[in-house]
Description:
Layout: E1 4-8, H1 11-14, E2 22-24, H2 29-41, E3 46-55, E4 65-72, E5 78-80, H3 83-95, E6 100-107, H4 115-125, E7 129-131, H5 134-144, E8 148-156, H6 164-168, H7 178-187, H8 192-216
Amino acid sequence: xxxxxxxxxxxxxxxxxxxxxxxxxxxxxxxxxxxxxxxxxxxxxxxxxxxxxxxxxxxxxxxxxxxxxxxxxxxxxxxxxxxxxxxxxxxxxxxxxxxxxxxxxxxxxxxxxxxxxxxxxxxxxxxxxxxxxxxxxxxxxxxxxxxxxxxxxxxxxxxxxxxxxxxxxxxxxxxxxxxxxxxxxxxxxxxxxxxxxxxxxxxxxxxxxxxxxxxxxxxxxxxxxxx
Length: 227
C-alpha cells in the first residue's frame, strides 16, 4: 500500500483523521514545506494537503468541499494535482452523498482577511478557495517527484471578514490557544460576533473533513491508484 503523507495546518484538522496519519505543520507555508520534506524523507510516496480554507467563490457555503485540480501559488504558477487520485476520491465522496467541486485552489503566504482581498484573489486566479499550506506542499511534491492532492473544506465564506482574533487563536505549531484568543477579543470586542460565526462555520468545515476521512479512508491511501 502506498504510504501517504497528509499535512494539515492545525491539530484539530489532523484529528479528523486517524492517529499518526496526518501531521500538523501550523498555518505557515515554510513550516508546511519543512513538514512535507520530512514526510518524503521518512518514506512517504505521495503528499496530500488537507484542511479548512477561506471561500473565494461567492456561492460556496461553510462546509463546502473542494478537491484541487491545481494549486495556484502566490507567484501565479499553478501546480496540478494527481488526476487519477483526485478522480477516485471525488467518486468515493460523491458516492457517499457529499457534494464536491473539482477546481483550482489558491495558496497564500498570508491570511486573506477581507472581502475585497478574497474577491481580487478570485478574479486573479479563478480559484474557489484559499489556504496557507497547499502551495508549499505542492512545491515539495514537485521537487520530490511524488503525486500530490489537496482537499479543502470552506470555513469562512467569501462574503465574510476573517477576524484578526482568529489568527491569534492558533499557535505556530497549529495548536489552539484559548488564552490568546480571549486576549485578542478583549482588545477587539467588536470581533466577538464574527468569532462566534467563524466557530460555527468551522465546525461545519471540520464535519466535512471527517466525512472525507470516513469515505476516503483515514490515510487516503485506499483510493490511491497504483497505476
